[in-house]
Sequence to fold (341 residues):
Amino acid sequence: MIRYTTVKEKRQNASNSVKTPSSTGEVDIAHEGGPGGSIFKTMSIRPGIKMIFADHEVGQRLEMDYEIDLAPISLSYAMSQRIRSTMTSGPRGKTVIERSPGDSVLAYLPKTRGTNQILSKGRLLGVSFHFSPQVFYELFTDLPGCLKGLCSVSGTPKGQRFYQQSRFDKETLLVLKQILVCPYEGEIQRLYFESKALELVALKLAELEQGHRVPDSNRRDLDRAREAYHILLSDLDHPPSLIDLSRRVGINRNKLNQEFKALYGDTVFNVLRNARLSEAWSLLKQSDKSLSEIAFSVGYNNQSNFTTAFRKEFGKTPKEVRQDVAVEPLPPHVRKPALAR
Fold:
């Protein structure tokens, strides 16, 4: 499978009902060959902004080649799976970078090609937004120095490239989960995703302004906690015990709980419980599985225990949620499945 990305100039019609710049770049992203079309879903949020999301069970290691011509400014979030990316830009040598669950990337990489490798089978979960430079610079005028002057207003590269990778915080995780369980459709859905895209950029820009850095002494423990989080999300129906989980990632259970609170706002047990119930809410609204099938798929050994936990969390039984066909805002517990403020 290969992904082709470029930015094409496009002039907007003055009668366009969506308020957009008069001259913008349209982000063009195409997948060819392999299962890319079924794994990665691309949506146009507005002229000059594309969203790609993936929520797919991968049965084997996956490779995707990519080629970028005129580059968008891209913001990507890995929520499960480790990804190894090789890239070559112009005359430079090959660069290899790994991303773990919980990593975000802000990048501008014109004239770049490479390969992304999904390193294990399981659930592939991630979100990315791609802005044409023209739209990005019109929307966000007060930028950190590192993002100024990457390209001209027309989107022409100036020879500079930018790649910043960091761990995303609990506020960002909340926005990502809201995107994945969006209850809306049509134009309301598009507006919802647009607002979330702008919110994610604002959080990233605030991080860059603050010069957020993780001390080297803590980085190893944080990486182990992110790996533990990935293990939990990948196996909601049969998760390891806290002791087994801590042994698998090489950190004691008290330290693991401490790092989970720093990264995700709660203990390992509560993060797992909220992830299970969030997944159950989504399945109730978006699938035709029976209540017992949903209970088993999110790790409850019987429907009665599942119903009790669900009603305690949301104030409604699973049956009541399924029967309520009206589109309604998700309750706070679903909007924040892995957080306790």
Summary: The longest helix spans residues 186-210. The mean pLDDT is 81. The longest strand covers residues 2-11.
